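Supplementary notes for students who missed Thursday's class. We covered one full example, reproduced here. Read the sequence, then the structure, then the short commentary at the end.
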Amino acid sequence: MTKRTAWAKQQERSNALLLRLMTWLSLRLGRRAGRAVLHLVAAYFVLFSPRARAASRDYLRRVLGRPARWRDVYRHVFTFAATIHDRIYLMNARFDLFDIRPHGHTLVDATLAKGRGVFLMGAHLGSFEVVRALGRTRPDLRVVVTMYEENAQKINAALGAVNPAAKPEVIGLGQVDSMLRVHERLDQNCMVGMLADRTLLADDAATVRRMAFLGEPAAFPLGPLYMAAMLKRPVLFMTGLYRGGNRYDVHFETLADFTDVPREARQRTIDAALVRYVALVDRYCRAAPYNWFNYFDFWQGGRKAAGVGAPAPVRVPAPAPARRREARAHAELPVHEVTDA
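Structure (token representation):
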């Protein structure tokens, strides 16, 4: 019998009424006034969400190479709140409020020119909405989002409260027709986005691979890459990093292309793609450390998910200076144990 991971079991704190109120206030009073409210929201979560606070400290210790201070945790939570708040303006087509700088966007054009669509594989790193906003500025680009059905229902309700007319098309995974719907959208030359840094089944070693991430093994799901391989499609890495103020840097990088990969080489190609994916997430976390929004015990979950007899991890070593800093941090900061919600 399987069990859900900590992130999937956490309680939903937001509700549609609150989102509608925040949307109404933000659109009428402006972004600066809305940001003032966010400081109170961030302070509340830092003070009264001990599990999220402990998970933030643990992650920040790894990525910063030193013990995380209160102001680090606050900045981490506020960055998350800011990206959520910016969805209000992005979904209401207020692109004039933003300085969005795309990097590697020619990869998207070149890949879509082949007419087979593309998987956009990201992480809970920065804002996916700002990536989708780029697609909304061009009528020839269409972005479809995939996620597990329960999460799809939650995000549809939340985004519907912000702007029902701008809701993305969401394909719920785990359904009988999920693969068929993804296949159809790819054949229509759509971009199919997914976030591939959370496992769903915490005790199923066959569905995850332990990879070194920020210096210690954690579990990453193989499902997204298996889907791309089965459908023989190209995959691009994506992330929309929040850089403060109104600036976002959107990055696209080549991850894999399964179009012409023979069956006997499929597993090797998947393994190589996962190595590159984890390395890219690691690199962008270090480049923008407050943009990582997995507020649960990511590394303990990785140890549980791998289990006894799991495949040996393909190591992605951190740079030597980072490993030395991390060793000092381990010695200076006690480990936080985060139980499932």
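Commentary. The beta strands are 99-103, 118-122, 143-148, 169-173, 191-195, 208-213, 216-221, 234-242, 247-257. DSSP finds 13 helices and nine strands in the chain. If anything here is unclear, bring it to office hours.
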